[in-house]
Amino acid sequence: MRYIELSLLLGISLFNMPVTDAKIYTRCELAKELFNSGIPKTFISNWVCLIEAESGADTSKVTELPNLSTNYGIFQINSKEWCRKSRKGGECGIRCEDFLTEDIKDDIKCAKVIYNRHGFKSWKGWMSRCKSRPLPDVSKCFGKRKK
Fold it and tell me: Do 33 and 6 contact (CB within 8 A), yes or no?
């Protein structure tokens, strides 16, 4: 009987553990992902700066806020307006937890929605650490084209 109880307990514990494939991106990895998602090269330095300021390029970052909302992932996208905890929803129509994986295509898609509505001013990290300041140099990330 003890064996069954222990098996059930372990099974329930493992079931409740969060399953995420989080990643901390390098600058060049970010630059390439952003470019491949349609961000123009002239804006990539701003986006990389924003990501570094908001999350340190860590897709697993979660920040609980005093207003009882939560910021998720590499862009620190807020649950109050843009996504919903444990179910699809918000203005981006996505589960907030989906922003915590190493696949940042959905994060970029939602961040573009936020940017198109409010610009970079939606992110406090960009306002305090990127606006009117030197931006990261990502030009080496794309290399030179062969003729």
Answer: no
Percent with pLDDT over 70 in the chain? 84
Summary count for the chain: helices (H), strands (E): 5, 3
- The residue behind tokens 């862009």 is 75
Q: Output the pTM of the full model.
A: 0.83
- Nearest 5°: the CA angle 14, 71, 27 is 95
The phi and psi torsions of 84 (rounded to 5 degrees) equal -130, 140
- From the list 89, 108, 130, 124, the residue with the least C-alpha distance to 30 is 108
- Closest C-alpha among 94, 29, 15, 87 to residue 58: 29
- The answer to whether 140 touches 107, Cβ cutoff 8 Å, is no
**Cβ-based neighbour number of residue 43 at 10 Å:** 14
